[in-house]
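Hi support team,

I'm opening this ticket because the web form for multi-chain structure prediction keeps timing out on my end. I have pasted the exact lines I submitted so you can reproduce it. The total is 369 residues across two entries, so I didn't expect it to be a heavy job. Is there a limit I'm missing, or should I split the entries? Thanks in advance, R.K.
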Amino acid sequence: MPELIKVRPTKIELVKLKRRLSLSQRVQKIIKDRLSILTMEFLQTARDTAEAKRNLLDEFSKLYKALSVAAGYHGYIALEKELIATEADLKITAGSRNIAGVRIPSFELMGNPDKVGMKGYNLVDTSSWLDRAAQLSEESLRAIVELAELQRNFELLAMEIHRTKRITNALEYIVIPGLQVTINYLNMKFEERDREEKVRLKRVKVLVAQG
Amino acid sequence: MPNPLQDEAKQSPYEKILQDCLRSELRIVNTGLPQSQKRQSKENKLFYLLNEKYPHVVCNDGSTHFFKKSELEYLASMIDIDEQKALLLPMLIELGANQAEAAIICEGKLEEKLISKALNMPVTCEERRIRIYKPQLALLRRKFKTTTVYVFSPKIVA
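Hello R.K., no limit was hit. The queue was backed up. Here is the completed structure from your submission:
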C-alpha cells in the first residue's frame, strides 16, 4: 500500500499536493513516450550491431583469405617490403548526436569509400591480389568504425533505458499513488472537519434554544 | 498508517530530490533540438551543410549535433540543388499525445517528397505535419539516423 506523505492537513498543502500530482502525471507521460522511443532505438541498434558484427567477421574472413593468397603469390618478405611504405594515418570524424535526450557518439571514416588513398605500394611490382587485399582492408576498417559506433550506442541506450525504467516505476508505483492517497486523506480530513463543525453548530443552536 | 497531522510540514530530502529529478527530466527531453531552425539561416540547410568539413548544428544546450556526410549525400541524391538549398536539417519528428503515431514537421512539399521516397509510399502533408506510424518511423530513423531529431510536443510538455 502506498505511504502517506508527511504534510500538515491544510488547504495550501492540498493545493501543493495537487500541483505535484499533476506535474508527476505529466512527467510520467513524457517519460513513457521517451521510454518507448528509446526502446525502439535500442532494438534497432541491437539489430544493426548484430548485422555489423556479422559483416565485420565476413570482411575479416575475406581479408585473411586475400592476404594469404597475396602472401603466397609474392612471398612474405616481398609483401612486407611493399607494405612497409603503405602506412597511412586514418582520419575519423567523431561527433555526437542526441536521441531523446541521450547523447551518443557518431563516428565516420573520412574520405570516399572508392577513393581512400591507402594504396601506397608500387602498383607495377605488385599483383591484383594485393590490390584486392588492400580494398578488403579498407572495407574492414569501415566495418570496424561502424561497429564501434553501434556498440557504444547500444551500451548508452541500454543504460538510459534502465535509468528511465527506474524513474517510470518509481512514479507509477510510489510517487503518484502516494500523492493520490495523501490527497484523498486530506479531502476526507476536511470533510470530517466540516461535519464536526456542522454538528457543533447544531448543538450550539439547541443549547441556545434551551437557554 | 502514519498520521500526517503529527508529522513535520517540511518536505523530506527524498521528496526534494525526486522533484528535482522530475524537473530535469522535463528539461532534458528537448535539449537535442537545434538552436536555429529559421528559413533565412543558411547554416541548417542541406546544400550548405554538404560543403562543410564537419557538418553540424548547435543544439539548445550548447552541444553540437553531428551529421554524417554519407547520409547528407544520400539525401542530396534524392533532390535537386534548389531543393537542397531549401531543405532544413535536422528534420523534426514530433511525438504527440497519440503514442501510436508520430508527425514530421515540414515546411512544404519538399519533406513530403523525401519521406515518400525514403519510405517508398505516398505521404501527405497536413497542417505542416506528415503523420506516420511507428513501424514507418523505425524505418525512417534507420535511413536518416543523424538527419532526424525527436521533439517532444509542447502539448505534452506544457
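A quick check on our side: The helical segments of chain B are 13-28, 46-50, 69-78, 81-86, 109-119, 134-143, 154-157. Let us know if the file doesn't open in your viewer.
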